[in-house]
Design a protein that fits this description.
The complex is a heterodimer of chains A (112) and B (112). With 112 residues, chain A is mostly beta strands. Helix content of chain A is 0%, strand content 52%. In chain A, the strands form 2 sheets. In chain A, strands 2, 4, 5, 6, 9, 10 and 11 form a 7-stranded mixed β-sheet that branches. In chain A, strands 1-3-8-7 form a 4-stranded antiparallel β-sheet, with no helix packed on it. Chain A is globular. The relative contact order of chain A is 0.33. In chain B, strands 2, 5, 6, 10, 11 and 12 form a 6-stranded mixed β-sheet that branches. Classes of the chains: A mainly beta (112), B mainly beta (112).
Chain lengths: 112, 112
């Protein structure tokens, strides 16, 4: 069955370190999204991609970057982790022209 | 810009009670509207959606009607079960950009 996976599921890191969160989908979807989930804010869009070599900034993109070298993967990089980036991160994908997004299980990140 | 406002919560109900979770939106044009559910420790999954005014989305006993005149998409269920305990997110998608804007989420707990 097609799925979307995230790794690691849990990560502890220190302030200033670079961290990369992986997202892999086997739906063959064109669109991929990264969100962070924080209490009182719901889900906020970090970055998104509509296809290979396409990336776009969302509403909370500062301190994050993504790259899309193939259809299946959209890794999220925190260039220099900050305590304010402690959060739960969700990756999602959708097919071109389709509104329904499919979510991964999430990565819980703690920055000390 | 687009925004979604939903009932803050947390909401605690007894089993078999009637549930309403309010959701209102602000958007230009005619967005599609969604309810996503997040069970403990999992990612979000689509519960139901409606794509035009007066449409009713339904799934697993939950219903929501797209009310353009009141810009609302309230979630209802006639008789909740313990297994409905989860966080519920209202969201909208503005035609053409395939991105979702989420509300802050409402945590629902059903007690036996």
């Amino acid at each position: 069955d097609a799925e979307i996976t995230q790794s690691p599921r849990h990560k502890i890191t220190e302030t200033g370190r670079q961290v990369t969160l992986a997202c892999h989908q086997t739906w063959n979807h064109n669109n991929m999204f990264w969100y962070r989930q924080d209490l009182g804010h719901g889900l906020r869009l970090i970055h998104y991609s509509y296809g290979v070599q396409d990336t776009n900034k969302g509403e909370v993109s500062d301190g994050y970057s993504v790259s899309r070298s193939n259809t299946e993967d959209l890794p999220l990089t925190l260039e220099s982790a900050a305590s304010s980036q402690t959060s739960v991160y969700f990756c999602a994908s959708s097919d071109r022209g389709q509104e329904t997004q499919y979510f991964g299980p999430g990565t819980r990140l703690l920055v000390l | 810009g687009n925004s979604v406002t939903q009932m803050e919560g947390p909401v605690t109900l007894s089993e078999e009670a009637f549930l309403t979770i309010n959701c209102t939106y602000t958007a230009t044009g005619y967005p599609s509207l969604f309810w996503y559910v997040q069970y403990p420790g999992e990612g979000l999954q689509l519960l139901l959606k409606a794509t035009k005014a007066d449409d009713k989305g339904s799934n697993k006993g939950f219903e929501a009607t797209y009310r353009k005149e009141t810009t609302s998409f309230h979630l209802e269920k006639g008789s909740v079960q313990v297994s409905d305990s989860a966080v519920y997110f209202c969201a909208l998608n503005h035609f053409g950009n395939e991105k979702l804007t989420f509300g802050t989420g409402t945590r629902l707990t059903i007690i036996p």
